[in-house]
Amino acid sequence: GASDTEIKIGNIMPYSGPASAYGVIGKTEEAYFKKINAEGGINGRKINFISYDDGYSPPKTVEQARKLVESDEVLFVFNPLGTPPNSAIQKYLNTKKVPQLFVATGATKWNDPKDFPWTMGWQPNYQSESRIYAKYILKEHPNAKIAVLYQNDDYGKDYLKGLKDGLGAKAASMIVIEESFEVTQPTVDSAVVKMKSLNADVFFNVTTPKFAAQTIKKMNEIGWKPVHFLNNVSASIGSVMKPAGFENAQGIISSNYLKDTSDPQWKDDAGMKAFDEFLTKYFPEGNRIDGSVMYGYTVAQGIVHVLKACGDNLTRENVMKQAANIKGLELGGLLPGIKVNTSPTDFAPISQLQLMKFKGEKWDLFGDVISGDVGG
C-alpha cells in the first residue's frame, strides 16, 4: 500500500442508493487529496485514493473491501460510510490486519480496541449524542411524552440506547412510542401520522437525510409540532433543511462538532477561510452549505495528520499506532474547544458536541461544549 512515491488509500461510499446524499463525502476527500498532492504530497509521496460505490448495501461493501485489500493492495481503508456496511467488513479487515480507519459512522462499537484493534471511529458516537439530548430533555421538558423514529439497524438502535441510558429510570414512562423503519421503505409518512396520534410532545428523529427531509415535510403537512430533536448525521442545511423547506424546519434542535458554513460568525475565521480557498481551487462543484462537505474536508485533514506522523514508516501497524496517539489536535473545521484525542485504549477521536437550534436559514449554537462520553 505504500512505496517511495505513493500511498494507496482505499475508500467505500454510497454514491448510489438510499444514502447517496453522503456520496459527496468521498468526492470532497478526493479533492482534498488532490490539494495535498499538488502541494508535494506527504513526506514526498503522492496519495492514490481509490474509492468504490457500495450503494449502502452490506454485501456489496464486502465485495469492494476485498477488492481494495486483495487486488488494489491499499495500505488501509479510510472513512468507509455507514453502520451496516462497516459492520459487514469489520471482522474481515481485522482478520487481515488492515486498518479500518476513521469510519464514517458514529456507532459506539467502533471504539473497541481490545476486540477490534484495527477499527477506529471518527465522529462523536451516537450514544453520547443521544445522552446529551436526554440531559437537555430532563432539564427543559421533564414531563415530556417522547416519540422516537429510528432506522431498524445498529445505527438506529445505538441512538435509542443512548437516549434510554440518558433518561435513566424515567425512560419507560417518558417514551410513548419507539417506531422503527427499514431503509428500503420509500417513505416514513405513516409512522409520522401514528406518532402524532399519540400526542407526543417531544420527537427524536433518528434518520438519514432522505427520510429526515421527508419527516420534516410530513410533520408540517399534518400540523404536528413537538419539540423536535434531529440526529447530527442529518443536520445538513444543503441536503435536509433546504429540501424540507426552511419554514418547516424552524426550532429543530440538533448538535454539532463542526463549524456550520452558513453561519456568519465564522466569516473572518482562519479555518473557514482555508476551507473556502480549498473549495474555490480544488472542489468548486462542492455545495458549500452541505455539512457533508465540511465533514469530508475535516476527516481528510485528520488522516493527513496521521500519515505525516508516520514519517517513512508506512506499515499498517504504525498507521494504527499513530492514529491511536493523537493528542489535542485542532482542525480548522471543528468548533472552538473541540479537539481530536485518542489513546491505545480510546478509539473515539471526537467525543464533544454543542447543541444548536435551527433559526431562519441557519443553525444557532447554544450552551457549552458538552462531553457525552460513553465507555466502549
Would you kindly provide a written description of the structure presented here, covering whatever features stand out?
- It is built from twelve helices and eleven strands.
- It folds into two domains: 6-124 and 266-345, Rossmann fold (3-Layer(aba) Sandwich), CATH 3.40.50.2300; 126-256 and 355-371, 3-Layer(aba) Sandwich (Rossmann fold), CATH 3.40.50.2300.
- A four-stranded parallel beta sheet has the order 2-1-3-4, sandwiched between helices.
- Helix 1 (23-38) crosses helix 11 (291-310) and helix 8 packs parallel to helix 9 (237-244).
- The two termini are 30 Å apart.
- The protein is an alpha/beta fold and 376 residues long.
- Helix content is 39%, strand content 17%.
Layout: helices, strands, pairs:
Elements: E1 6-13, H1 23-38, E2 46-53, H2 58-71, E3 76-78, H3 83-95, E4 100-101, H4 126-140, E5 146-151, H5 154-167, H6 171-174, E6 175-181, H7 189-197, E7 202-206, H8 209-222, E8 227-230, H9 237-244, E9 253-256, H10 270-282, H11 291-310, H12 316-323, E10 352-359, E11 362-371
Parallel strand pairs: 1-2, 1-3, 3-4, 5-6, 5-7, 7-8
Antiparallel strand pairs: 9-10, 10-11
Helix pairs in contact: 1-11, 2-3, 4-5, 7-8, 8-9, 11-12
